């Protein structure tokens, strides 16, 4: 199917203002150089919709907007313990049956679960409410530590600002790395965080000289992807033992050094495939893989297609 061009966000009474801001910022206009989306907020009772901050929003679109959108997002709301009205659940189910992509993050995931769209699937939500989701919907495999989970036409994300990660992931998946990275730059956000990354970190910001050294090593690694970058070398540059470095790295990033580097290399390869006409062999060298064959193997695992097929789909090179 072609990538989505229209986006409708279901905005219930008591909707989270942060969530409204996230989808509006990601799918709103970003200038002539980026694709524009037909984006709208919709609700079951158009008019003044209260939010979790007490500031009302004026929503003019009703549930019919869900019937024409390529991507439907259920936003979180304050009274999520009470399922949405049957008309809302029917509209979400109908959108999915029609072939739309359906997504939600934080407690908006409870709406998808109530509509039966998560039955037999893996899903995540805000870690604080993961147990409640699992207890209410035992047919759903809840993974409380994941940042987001992509199940094809249904994608769920963790709480609060993880909505940015979910939306950027969908942009990357459907429109390519260059578009997602450009939107992230526009919003001054990290370009990509892997869905398997932990929702929350014990030490998300540097708290010691060791953490500052770690941040410096990560910045150096980003600039030197063409090198092998073994963990022993990274640990040496951080003035740590391999064991201490691995422990500190996981605490600070929520993932392992190997997984972080693999994601970084593949993200760089995606953007080079989209924005240049460099041979795949040269791209493999620039991102630190020993051969095009190794890049191809890793790329197929991540994207499901080889690099050349990905390039044909997403290329923006002249």
Describe the structure.
By secondary structure, the chain is an alpha/beta fold. The chain is 45% helix and 11% strand. The chain has helices spanning 17-27, 86-98, 109-114, 130-136, 162-175, 177-187, 209-223, 231-237, 242-253, 257-275, 280-286, 292-303, 307-314; strands at 6-10, 38-42, 47-49, 57-59, 71-74, 101-105, 122-123, 141-142, 148-150, 154-157. The chain has a 6-stranded mixed sheet with strand order 2-1-5-6-10-9. A two-stranded antiparallel sheet has the order 3-4. The protein has a two-stranded parallel ribbon with strand order 7-8. The longest helix has 19 residues, at 257-275. The radius of gyration is 21 Å and the shape is globular. 43% of the residues are buried. Residues 201-209 have low confidence and may be disordered.
């Amino acid at each position: 199917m072609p990538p989505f061009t229209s986006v409708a966000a279901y905005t219930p009474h008591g909707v989270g203002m942060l969530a409204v801001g996230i989808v509006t910022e990601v799918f709103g206009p970003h200038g002539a150089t980026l694709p524009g989306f037909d984006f709208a907020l919709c609700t079951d009772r158009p008019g003044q919709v209260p939010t979790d901050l007490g500031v009302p929003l004026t929503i003019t679109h009703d549930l019919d907007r869900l019937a024409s959108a390529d991507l439907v997002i259920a936003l979180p709301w304050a009274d999520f313990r009470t399922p949405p009205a049957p008309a809302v659940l029917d509209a979400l189910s109908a959108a999915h049956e029609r072939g739309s992509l359906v997504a939600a993050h934080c407690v908006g995931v409870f709406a998808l679960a109530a509509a039966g769209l998560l039955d037999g699937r893996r899903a995540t939500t805000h870690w604080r409410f993961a147990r409640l989701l699992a207890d209410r919907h035992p047919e759903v495999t809840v993974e409380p530590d994941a940042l987001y989970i992509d199940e094809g036409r249904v994608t769920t994300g963790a709480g609060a600002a993880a909505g940015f990660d979910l939306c950027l992931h969908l942009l990357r998946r459907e429109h390519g790395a260059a578009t997602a990275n450009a939107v992230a730059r526009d919003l001054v956000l990290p370009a990509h965080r892997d869905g398997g990354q932990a929702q929350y970190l014990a030490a998300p910001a540097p708290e010691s000289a060791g953490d500052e050294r770690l941040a410096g090593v990560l910045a150096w690694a980003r600039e030197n992807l063409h090198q092998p970058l073994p963990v022993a070398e990274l640990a040496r540059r951080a003035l740590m033992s391999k064991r201490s470095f691995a422990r500190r790295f996981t605490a600070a990033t929520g993932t392992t050094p190997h997984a972080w580097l693999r994601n970084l290399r593949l993200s760089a390869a995606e953007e080079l495939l989209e924005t240049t006409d460099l041979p795949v062999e040269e791209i493999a060298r620039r991102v630190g893989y020993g051969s095009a064959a190794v890049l191809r193997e890793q790329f197929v695992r991540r994207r499901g297609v080889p690099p050349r097929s990905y390039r044909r789909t997403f290329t923006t090179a002249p």
